[in-house]
Amino acid sequence: MVDIVRKRFGLLGRNISYSFSKGYFTNKFNSENFAGCTYENFDIPEISAFPEVVKNTSDLKGLNVTIPYKETVIPFLDKLSKKAELIGAVNTIKVTKKGKLKGYNTDYYGFKKSLEPLLEPYHKKALILGTGGASKGVAFALDELDIPYTFVSREAKENAIDYNRINATTFDNYQIIINSTPVGTSPNVEAFPLIPYEFFTEKHIAYDLIYNPAETQFLKKAKQHGAQIKNGLDMLIFQAEKAWEIWNK
């Protein structure tokens, strides 16, 4: 009888019962016959509980990281990939053979791969709604695509404008509007970022990193004015497969 090697993976976050990752990886392990592989949610109230998760989880090989810990997890890691260091946010952790924790960012890869097929020559600049950990991967991907961008925050900051500044001229200058905030995520499906949706046109892309619901209010309102819309599902699948590649290399 062959001994099955047990490998445990999981998602680190807060209030993550809705999460895509557990269902995705559980289906993957079952359908592709990865015997011994399991995936579970590590739902912790504060990042300070993270060391206990690692200490008390035997056979742990890798973790995905979601809101709100993509930045605050970094001090708990032993090292970062070059890109994760540049981005300043981590959404994938590999437990090395020596038991060290190495942080990676696969968000930027998933976002870039899902946005690229939509781009036309007139998509010249991007507006990123939100300045949290998810926005950092988006910004890095836009840098790689040579698309200039501006952050939007609830309050004007050194590197961000506030929502009150967005007007018709903004929409003339920025043809890609990306929601990197959690506003509109299930169960709060009626919420939406406060921007003037009437200025969307068919030459705009409205991209929402949210995947549940599949069509947020942000996307619905943009679509009503002709914008091309895209939710975060493909990005999630691409980043998940990249994480799996990292855990197994």
TrEMBL record:
- SUPFAM superfamilies of this UniProt entry? Aminoacid dehydrogenase-like, N-terminal domain, NAD(P)-binding Rossmann-fold domains
Q: In which pathway does it act?
A: Metabolic intermediate biosynthesis; chorismate biosynthesis; chorismate from D-erythrose 4-phosphate and phosphoenolpyruvate: step 4/7
The reply on keyword Oxidoreductase is yes
Q: Which InterPro entries match?
A: Aminoacid_DH-like_N_sf (IPR046346), NAD(P)-bd_dom_sf (IPR036291), Shikimate_DH-bd_N (IPR013708), Shikimate_DH_fam (IPR022893)
Cite the Shikimate dehydrogenase substrate binding N-terminal domain residue spans from the record.
11-93
For this UniProt record, give its keywords in alphabetical order, as a comma-separated list. Answer: Amino-acid biosynthesis, Aromatic amino acid biosynthesis, Oxidoreductase
Q: Which Pfam families match?
A: Shikimate_dh_N
The protein's matches in CDD domains, at most eight in alphabetical order, are given as: NAD_bind_Shikimate_DH
Its protein name is: Shikimate dehydrogenase
Native organism: Flavobacterium algoritolerans
